Amino acid sequence: MTTLTKTEGERAPSGSEAFLSVRDLRVRFSTEDGIVKAVDGLSFDVERGKTLGIVGESGSGKSVTNLTVLGLHNPKTATVEGEIVLDGKELVSATEKEMEKLRGNKVAMIFQDPLTALSPYYTVGRQIAEPFMKHTGASKREAKARAIEMLDKVGIPQPAMRFDDYPHQFSGGMRQRAMIAMALICNPDLLIADEPTTALDVTVQAQILDLLKDLQQEFGSAIVFITHDLGVISKMADDLLVMYSGRAVERGSVREVLRAPQHPYTWGLLSSMPRLGGDTAQALTPIPGSPPSLLNPPSGCPFHPRCGFTSEVGGNRCSTERPELPEGRSAACHLSGEQRSTFFIEQIKPRLG
């Protein structure tokens, strides 16, 4: 079998633990209605062997961020600024040829809907084997053997027989497993999972999450896990980034953020979740209003039109001054740390049980 090789890039500076480092990322799209500010000054790090969870409502910029890491935007309509460094190699300025060497090899993505991500015209096995041939120079025979090995690894029964099946012959859970096999066939150092369990029932969802954790331990990959489900994040992630209107509004370890959230938006997400064993007669507390338009985002804090705590800040600071997100465990909010702790303990925590 051909030995797997990886694209070598410039090494990260000594002392840097981040395998993926994103700094002040801004992604804008030109449309007939104007400029869409899909990502607006985002920064985060992902360490080797760790999982970063990214949560937020639809339109918060989660998927756009990770498609940008892969360089999958149309350069005619998208403008990307900032810095993306993967294992010491800067990606924003990378050429398409350089990105092709990385995609599927050093970094791979599991898409949300495998039925649309997989081509209906080719067998599942061929689609899994293709990136292995492209990046390693393996023969068709070697690639087929490797693809069957990966189908077996992700739990597809009778993998040698299913190699020649088409996507429509697989169940939803099996298609997602096939997507995972395709993403992992070249042993990527970074795996991006874009809501990979959204369309699956809870039993299959649990199996897929367990599979990803087991494969991460085996391959040592860093994972960026995108979802709107905080329950899934609590099971999967080491660190958590909460996004709103193209920006990060809170970050920290999963334990810190879920046990003692500091941002009113995170409070809203947690308060709107149903809980096992909770009072079935108690109504959920939805976040009022709708996510802001990315064509014309509000001034100041982007969450202030929906926030119930702006009056506690005083003046019109929330509507005129955009709060920044400091390094480390932090939240982008004008409330003081003492105010946030008090409001969470007295008003939010009793709702969470």
TrEMBL record:
Pfam families per record = ABC_tran, oligo_HPY
> What Gene Ontology terms describe what this protein does at the molecular function level?
ATP binding; ATP hydrolysis activity
Q: Which GO terms describe its cellular component?
A: plasma membrane
What NCBIfam families has UniProt attached to this entry? Answer: oligo_HPY
State the annotated membrane topology for this chain: Peripheral membrane protein
The segment(s) forming the ABC transporter domain are: 22-270
Q: Where in the cell is it found?
A: Cell membrane
Q: Which key words are in the record? A: ATP-binding, Cell membrane, Membrane, Nucleotide-binding, Transport
Q: What does the sequence similarity comment in the record state about its family?
A: Belongs to the ABC transporter superfamily.
Q: Please give the superkingdom of this protein's source.
A: Bacteria
Q: Which protein is depicted?
A: ABC transporter ATP-binding protein
- InterPro entries assigned to the protein according to its UniProt record, in alphabetical order: AAA+_ATPase, ABC_Ni/Peptide_Import, ABC_transporter-like_ATP-bd, ABC_transporter-like_CS, Oligopep_ABC_C, P-loop_NTPase
What are the recorded Gene Ontology BP terms?
Answer: peptide transport
